[in-house]
Amino acid sequence: MPIAITHGYSHDPRPDLKQWMMNLVCWDDGAIPAFIELADGNPSDKARFAGLMQAFKQHWQFDGLYVADGALYSADNLVLLNGMTGLSRVPLTHTVATELVEQLHDDAFEAIDPEGYRMAQVCTTYTGVPQRWVVIESESRLQSDLNQWHQTLATAHRTAQTQLKHLCSVPFACEADARHAAERLSKPWA
């Protein structure tokens, strides 16, 4: 079947260039190619990963572990891959991951090295597929996130101070107008 060489998402970033895709399944550490599929230049990994693994399974009797990046983790892919054993990162942009991480208590973690890494294991079910999640937490990453949060908070504080200063300098004809302006100012924080 011919492929469409077309514009797609460019990692370079070079959106002016046309492209095509080569999906590759490898054995072991990636050194030995086992399955190659040529594809159009604009498919998303998320939409193709599960189908690629199923196509691979049709050609090879494979009783092992499939490993893929976070693009694999979606409700649709989990249903398609039911019965296959896989390992994937779950992006924190995914609601299920965010909720799980927020619910973990400090006592769920155990230290795994002196560099400040901790680990927690959680058994969960998503879309009817039982899973075991391993949550890794890094002290240095936590500090970096806190620093970023403080910068974001400081920026928001400066913006709010500027808006409040502007609001205080505006004369209002009546109390209702002043309340309306104050409500408009507070909406971004709601």
What would you say this structure looks like, in words?
The protein is of the alpha+beta class and about 190 residues long. Helix content is about 40%, strand content about 25%. A 3-stranded antiparallel beta sheet has the order 5-6-7. The mean pLDDT is about 85. The chain has helices at about 45-60, 75-80, 95-105, 140-170, 175-185; strands at about 20-25, 30-40, 65-70, 85-90, 110, 115-125, 130-140. The chain has a domain at about 145-190.
Topology readout:
Layout: E1 21-27, E2 32-39, H1 45-59, E3 66-68, H2 75-80, E4 86-88, H3 95-103, E5 110-111, E6 117-126, E7 129-138, H4 139-168, H5 175-186
Parallel strand pairs: 3-4
Antiparallel strand pairs: 1-2, 5-6, 6-7
Let me know the number of strands: 7
Average pLDDT rating: 84
Low-confidence stretches are none
Number of helices: 5
What is the structure about, briefly put?
The protein is α+β, with helices and mostly antiparallel strands and 190 residues long.
Give the key terms.
190 residues; alpha+beta; 5 helices
